[in-house]
């Protein structure tokens, strides 16, 4: 096994494209690449987009897109389609497949060793970035082509399996939303003739804790934030803890609904998760709202409906998108009968169990992937 420099076996492909006159259909920005993912799953259409003049780099299916800005985000993925990207995203490919397989190059660039090197050698003060000259000097051990193929085949198979589980998870979540719509009908026409209630009649809600940077403490109380809502579930992978006085009323309780009520991104405002398991006392931040109700399951599903989005879509301040308590007061919706709500709760809980098992499988596959990449 030999040690090689990155630039000895890989290079930056410099294919120029005119975004106004290209046969390419898609573009990829940094926002389309997920941290730590092998494949690019998202993209935008060039036609009708507002992408700037820096989007002149062409790429082909199989090439690797490496986002040079903010290397701590670990954005580096294989594109399985042709397109264009910004000059700030390097298009990387092997120089000679007889020496370095393109598939294996992807595993090299996803390894902890590679990203640690990027983090240690980044440039800039506020907006960190990587130069090609820095990337070119990265050194790594290169196994034989046979070993490269064995490792990359296993890695790509594991990622494909992971993607199939993620699709099952997404299908399960969509099934619940579809059943909700099917069983409740259009809230605007209220076909079931259920009593129409305001949200304030069905629930109480409050904003969370305001704290200062000096209040953050490794031994403190967890403060749930927008990032702790992932795919409509509570995710404690990245938490902030604080050591400051907290009112009893803003500790979360089981079956509370946590909502992101203020955020710079309109897409994130209104996302929700139910509090299911409380392993330790937790509160929530000032940009979050907790909704507490005996109708928690029903409201959790309703908050993911188009009707809710439409009723709060006008809530935007000059600097930040938001859902205020006054806006929540004005929400009106039909309240289903006991039988319908109970059926919805059963469907939701069964889906939660299935989702839990699927997420466990995804976590197990992630462990295998990490082992293959860093072995």
Overview of the structural elements:
The radius of gyration is 24 Å and the shape is elongated. The chain folds into three domains: 2-142, DNA methylase specificity domains (Adenine-n6-DNA-methyltransferase TaqI, Chain A, domain 2, Alpha-Beta Complex); 144-194 and 336-375, Helix Hairpins; 201-333, Alpha-Beta Complex (Adenine-n6-DNA-methyltransferase TaqI, Chain A, domain 2). Helix 2 crosses helix 5 and helix 5 (145-184) packs antiparallel against helix 10. With 375 residues, it is α+β, with helices and mostly antiparallel strands. It contains ten helices and 24 strands. Strand 15 and strand 16 (233-234) form a beta hairpin. It has helices at 6-9, 102-109, 112-120, 132-136, 145-184, 199-202, 296-302, 306-312, 325-329, 338-374; strands at 2-5, 10-12, 15-16, 26-28, 44-45, 57-59, 64-67, 76-78, 83-85, 89-94, 139-142, 196-198, 204-207, 216-224, 229-230, 233-234, 240-242, 257-260, 262-263, 272-274, 282-284, 288-292, 321-322, 332-334.
């Amino acid at each position: 096994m030999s040690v090689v420099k990155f630039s000895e076996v890989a290079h930056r492909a410099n294919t120029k494209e005119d975004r106004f006159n290209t046969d390419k259909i898609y573009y990829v920005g940094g926002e389309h690449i997920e941290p730590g993912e092998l494949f690019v799953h998202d993209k935008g259409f060039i036609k009708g987009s507002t992408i700037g003049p820096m989007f002149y780099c062409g790429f082909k299916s199989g090439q690797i897109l490496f986002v040079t800005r903010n290397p701590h985000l670990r954005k580096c993925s294989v594109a399985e389609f042709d397109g264009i990207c910004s000059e700030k995203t390097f298009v990387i490919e092997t120089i000679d497949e007889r020496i370095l397989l393109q598939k294996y190059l992807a595993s090299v660039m996803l390894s902890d060793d590679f990203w640690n090197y990027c983090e240690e050698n980044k440039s800039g003060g506020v907006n960190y970035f990587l130069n090609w000259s820095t990337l070119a000097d990265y050194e790594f051990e290169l196994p034989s082509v046979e070993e490269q193929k064995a490792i990359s085949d296993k890695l790509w198979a594991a990622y494909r399996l992971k993607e199939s589980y993620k699709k099952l998870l997404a299908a399960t979540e969509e099934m619940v939303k579809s059943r909700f719509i099917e069983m409740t009908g259009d809230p605007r026409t209220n076909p079931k003739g259920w009593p129409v209630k305001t949200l304030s009649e069905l629930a109480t809600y409050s904003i969370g804790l305001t704290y200062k940077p000096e209040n953050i403490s490794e031994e403190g109380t967890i403060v749930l934030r927008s990032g702790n809502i992932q795919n409509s579930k509570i995710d404690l992978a990245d938490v902030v803890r604080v050591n400051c006085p907290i009112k009893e009323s803003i500790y979360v309780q089981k079956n509370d609904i946590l909502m992101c009520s203020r955020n710079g991104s309109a897409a994130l405002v209104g996302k929700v998760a139910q509090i299911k398991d409380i392993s330790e006392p937790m509160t929530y931040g000032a940009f979050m709202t907790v909704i507490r109700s005996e109708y928690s399951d029903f409201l959790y599903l309703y908050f993911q409906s188009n009707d809710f989005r439409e009723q709060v879509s006008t809530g935007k301040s000059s600097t930040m998108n938001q859902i205020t308590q006054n806006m929540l007061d004005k929400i009106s919706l039909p309240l289903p009968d006991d039988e319908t709500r109970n059926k919805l709760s059963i469907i939701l809980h069964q889906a939660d169990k299935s989702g839990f098992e699927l997420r466990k499988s995804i976590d197990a596959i992630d462990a295998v992937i990490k082992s293959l990449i860093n072995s």
